[in-house]
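Build the 3D complex.
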Amino acid sequence: MALDDLAEQLFVRPKGFALANYIGSDFTPPDVRGKVTGAAKFAEDIRVDGLVYARMLTSPMPHARVRSIDLTEALAMEGVVGVLTAEDVPAAAPPRAAILTNEPVFVGDPILAIAAIDDTIATNALQKIKIDFEPLPFCVDPLEALGKEGAAARTEGNIYAPAGFGDDSSGPEEFRWTKDQLDGFLGGEPPEGDTPVQWSFGDIDEGFRQASFVLEQNFVTAGYAHHSMEPRSSMAYWQNGRCYLHGPSQSQSAMLPGLAGMIGIPVADLVYINENCGGGFGSRSTPYPMLVLPAFFSRKINRPVALHLSRAEEFYLGKARSGFQGHVKMGFRDNGRICAMDLFLVQDIGCQTGFPSAASAAEATSLVYQPETMRFRAIPVMTNTTPKGAQRGPGQNQIAAAIEPLLDQAAINLELDRLQIRKTNAPDNDSFHGPSQQPITSAYIKEALDKGAARFNWAEKVQRSRQRRGSKVTGIGVGQAYHSAGRRGYDGLIRIAPDGKIHLHSGVGNLGTYSYASTTRPAADLLRCDWENCVVHYGKSTENLPWSSAQNGSNTSFTHSRANYVAALDVVEKIKSIAAEKLGGSADDYGIADERVFSKRQSAKSLSYAEVAQAAIELGGRFDGSVVPDEIHDVTKLAVANLRGTGLIGVAKDTLAMRGAVPALAVGFVEIELDLETGKYDIIEYLGVADCGTVVHPKGLAAQVRGGAVWGFGMAGLERHVYDRQTGIPANVGFYQCKPATYMDLPDTIGWDAVDLPDRDNPVGVKGIGEPVMGCAASAVLCAISDALGGHVFNRTPVTPDMIINHVAGRPQSTDAMSTNTF
Amino acid sequence: MSARDLDVPVQRRSMRFILDGEVVEIENVDPNRTVLQYLREDLRRCGTKEGCAEGDCGACTVVVVDRDVSGKRLRVRAVNSCIQFLPTLDGKELLTVESLSTDGELHPTQKALVDCHGSQCGFCTPGFVMSLFALHKNNADPTRREIDEALAGNLCRCTGYSPIVEAARVMYADELQSKCWLGQSRSSTVGADEQSRIVALNSIDTDVPLCIEGHGRKFFAPRELDHFADLVALHPDATILSGGTDVGLWVTKQQRDLPIIIYTGNVAGLNECLVDDGYLDIGAAVSLTDAMPLIIENYPTLEELFVRFASPPIRNAGTLGGNIANGSPIGDSMPALIVLETEVVLRTGGSTRSVALNDFYLAYQRTALRPGEFIERIRIPLPVEGEQVQSYKISKRFDQDISAVCGAYRLQLADGKVEKIGVAYGGMAAIPSRASLCEQSLMGQEWSEASVSRAMQALDKDFSPISDMRSSSQYRRNVCRNLLRRFYLETSASVIERVYSIGR
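Done.
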């Protein structure tokens, strides 16, 4: 259905209907009270009778083969009730993640689990296990693994380059560069070796020929852990052949097929409870092995089993951002327009499948800078480091951090204003992106730059660039970032009960953004009902939840405002049809307001929603969920089957038009003060401005912009993986070692704003925003550091005090130019 | 139990504390059990969360209430329950996130967090609630800086902190109208609720020392210094426990078994803080939170150092004595205390000896403490008129971080020349230590750019720092020199901005 058609439908609603009732207004999410009182239950808080506690034995080596395991002493301990080994769980085809393995490929890879009547006994039992390993070759730096002599992370190969996202057939491969090719790149030369991944558009050679200024740099961005506050836990038990599984995940309904598949049961036999998820940031949006381990263990020992990960295990298994070792060459015209972009990335994908972050980086580059011609090449290399996955702007944010400071360098060389060069290259509604130059739904980044520049007083602040006060120097920076932010094709489900309550069933996960609730508000709006009379159902599959997108990729606001919208349209249509059936006339004769349906000609002729719901039950068929549209997902059909006959059921799949990718765009402005004697800097002021379409939930948006900024500050200056090259052991696994920014590292206030212009393909105009608000902050800070240092670009994240002091002292840096995972 | 353990006529075998207004009495407690484990596993009271089990994130923050030294007011402290051993609660009141809302009514702290959208994923929230609650109880009108300090021990990955700071302000507007102590911030007078809590704490107070045996382990909490000294002499291999901010991690992270623990917290003689005979005399069991004001009052320039010391919950539990005894090469207090010519009073049985802190550290994590000996007091000389003292901590994060370099300086000039100089560093060697060659090069010299430049060169000979993940050796060399220069610039009145400034 096109939005034009929708507008027509909107038009026939009663006069005086205002779409803005719940859009753009704050609300108190229903679950927040439990979070401040401690009543909210996370997976590790669930206790059931007979529960036993599992602890895992994980690999102390980065790559090894288990020769033998002696469990005699451990199993003889009082209170120990069982063991789960790799033989008890399905094998995984490399490089896919195994639940348990006898060939661990990173420090912390789980080998077995022991269950006991309490957590302490289980922990102590692990100490009694005798295990013999055969150490295998390992690598922690992708470039080493790419060379002829380098160890491969997997016995089956050193890279993993699937044909596409979701390709399940490929496995690790051998892919090597010659010594000359590698040495050249390590020495700062452009990459000359082959790449398994590449695409291009336009004639890039011609693009560079037309350039009046060409900029070429190697760069390194560090990988690092998510550090969600909740170390993941899960608990499972079986009852009458059904598996009851508690666990944290960003998503809810989207988890079901994958989890059921991993456990080996039909979706109908899985009850998945995930009311609260203590942070995800990309690490928990899809099913993961540790979530189902207790299901296997519980089935084996016939008792409820809980598994709680320690902070260190959360580091090992919680996934991490991919690091890049890359090269970029950009050609600029006199006016700053980018006429050629050549991007090369070696992506550290860890020891499993990783996430296609390099491809995301390339897509972002093509969108944010709109190069006239572009070539992208990449090598996804495996290392024996913690498994990599999606982390808040996976690829998009690293590339923002790498390229934005170079844009400033180009501006300096071309004598252009740093804002202007960004606006010159910025996308708009008519822009295209990616290898096949697909259209987009909307882009207002120029407006965001203008709005931010005005509020930040950019013109005035840049006058302070590089000013010295004692040993301190001021740096001013602006950064941009992008992430796709919307999908289509998911289901909405609404029920009006005979008591008049409006039940909004949300299959969206509760990862802390409250989008599970905020995306239902357009439906409440459309139904002209009191939000206080609505009940939002979420967090448990027993709540009868519709099929939903995974809560990742900043997509939920766009995707599920649409899904709830189409479900609400279905409800409205059914309400009017029932009114026509009961009160005469045709559906078009009726309007809705104040939870009543009434005749437009005789307003006294009306029914309450409660009466309509009762009538729906009497009428049955499509009205009470007895008959459902074919196109809705099986998960939704299961939910509706449970609700059938309990009220008026509105259910629909989102088939609204969508012209292309949905760009979430964000810009950040920052002022820093850098101390040339210590290499430390203070962030004095920060402002983030979002292009997220219409603002739906202001406080939620503020938290995204500000929270994302804090992540960005961490990326720019604090967070990175450190691995001992001799042993493959990670050196920083805890909070204080990994150094996510604390409250005291922030400026006094973190300002936020939004363009607040509606997206063209969302009925309420909203787009997601969670991810680019980080990348713009990281890149703004890096640009400010460069600014403070007279334009010097480190070509690295994070930029540490060490690097700054070395630069100021005119000394070589402490680590090799292209090495990674080092301190 | 040996006869000597029983020299004190009566010892209690069970611990008592107050929770939700009820006295909880427990026997056979495992001395290695943490408060968090007790809450979550034994009581199934799961509002308090485990985020890291090493005092890093604050998700496990609870509030411990006892009486202050006067016995007439309550002392309300946020602590990390994940590294606090359960028997240390003896004689105190414990408040958790579940304690605050009464009859369905949210505490002002909780309501403010709801109203300000200060909770997102919610896992850190119970910890923030308790840190804010402690602030609310201790400070009726906090400044922004005081709010900053109160929240510094809690990590949040979602909100960007701004709404939580806002909640810290809004919660005062939301104070309940009732006179309930729980609902109101601390006032200058003792209200009825505070008084009733003091009465309750008095009711479980006793001079009888605690001696717990459980799960094959012992926990002694003596009351008298002589008894403490006897116990330590009798059990030279015992773990002396003060705040537990380091010892707790031995159990939660290293899975070490601590079979005998002797706790300093209830020993009156170790918990005094006074000015005596030209010294600040700080008992080894005095918490950093209690010791800080006295030190800062006398050495105001050290304020930033102590504000950046770990985090408030760690400072509430951790002690200066423990920090010194652990002998970490990068402990933040040591360089400053060394240049101040601090002495530590060591005691074995009935005899004491005094050792200069500079001589206390022998090698990496080895100290002058002999078997059966313990730190009784820390004696910091009072400031001398005209001297200038400073300490700079350089770490990646502002707080909750370990120094790459921590430098401390003390200078006395006479006629523009250096009459007395103390320069000490942490992070530059295996122990915190003075920079002797640097000091020698400055003694008797003009306090000038030239002599400081020479002294900066001398630092290169004083130290051969290592590279580690906190920084490279070259960075340490460079910054240790620059910090000396910074001290020169600040003391020569020519400049300048501080390295880092608090209360932004």
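Chain B has a mean pLDDT of 91.
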